[in-house]
């Protein structure tokens, strides 16, 4: 019931999105892998067929007709992982400090009305907490994924989804189940009428 109410709250926030808003995801270690995985589910078909924007489809056809690119392009929910830009991450870590690898990207990429999904098994990852703090300053909705206690990150999240465990394996396995549910709900919300 607790998760369901948080999911409803998240979907209601998502309904306010315009075409131009996006989601950012971050985490370290296994949580970095989760953030990449989440992007993979959001940027193409996941559980239902996603049509692309009708105006873009018509415009594409004016230039290129109905070719394979148009036929094989899926509707996308704009999502980016802050764990994938290796050159940028290593530059920030080297020149500024590892604790700022995500907050610098949130500052550079983030816009008011975006969502930041912040994964931290312990809830105490300084680089993830710093990303949440920067997101708050930019009026970005922060959704935290943590373990049982919520850790320090709980003070910087608008929505906290914490798994009732202190076992890293259990927490990360549950995070995957939960972000799959969220991905499916958001996909249906956006594309079920297409």
Instruction: Round the Cα radius of gyration to an integer and report it.
Output: 17 Å
Shape: globular
Main sheet attributes: strand count, strand direction, barrel closure: 5 strands, parallel
N- and C-termini, Cα separation: 30 Å
Query: Average pLDDT across residues?
Result: 92
Q: Which band does the percent of strand residues land in?
A: 5-15%
Strand order of the largest sheet: 2-1-3-4-5
Q: Percent of residues in helical segments? A: 40-55%
Unreliable parts: none
Structural classification: alpha/beta
Return the string of H and E elements.
HEHHHEHHEHEEH
Treating each run of at least 4 consecutive H or I residues as one helix, how many helices?
8
Strand tally is: 5
């Amino acid at each position: 019931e607790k998760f369901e109410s948080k999911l409803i709250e998240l979907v209601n926030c998502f309904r306010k999105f315009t075409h131009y808003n996006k989601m950012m995801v971050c985490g370290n270690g296994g949580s970095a892998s989760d953030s990449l995985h989440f992007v993979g589910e959001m940027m193409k078909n996941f559980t239902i067929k996603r049509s692309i924007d009708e105006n873009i489809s018509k415009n594409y056809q004016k230039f290129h007709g109905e070719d394979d690119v148009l036929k094989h392009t899926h509707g996308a929910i704009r999502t980016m992982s802050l764990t994938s830009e290796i050159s940028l991450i290593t530059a920030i870590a080297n020149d500024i400090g590892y604790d700022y690898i995500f907050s610098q990207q949130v500052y550079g990429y983030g816009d008011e009305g975006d969502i930041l999904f912040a994964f931290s098994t312990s809830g105490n990852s300084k680089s993830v907490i710093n990303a949440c703090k920067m997101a708050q300053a930019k009026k970005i909705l922060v959704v935290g994924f943590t373990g049982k206690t919520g850790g320090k990150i709980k003070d910087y999240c608008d929505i906290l989804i914490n798994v009732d465990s202190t076992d890293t394996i259990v927490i990360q396995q549950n995070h995957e189940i939960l972000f799959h549910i969220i991905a499916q709900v958001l996909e249906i919300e956006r594309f079920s009428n297409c």
